[in-house]
Amino acid sequence: MAPENTPPGVEPTVRVIAMPADTNANGDIFGGWLLSQMDLAGGTLAARLSRGRIATVRVEGMSFLAPVAVGDEVSIYAKLLSTGRTSMKLDITAYRRHRSEEESVKVTEGTFIFVAIDEKKQPRVLPESIKL
Question: What whole-number distance in Å separates Cα of residue 50 and Cα of residue 119?
Answer without folding.
Answer: 14
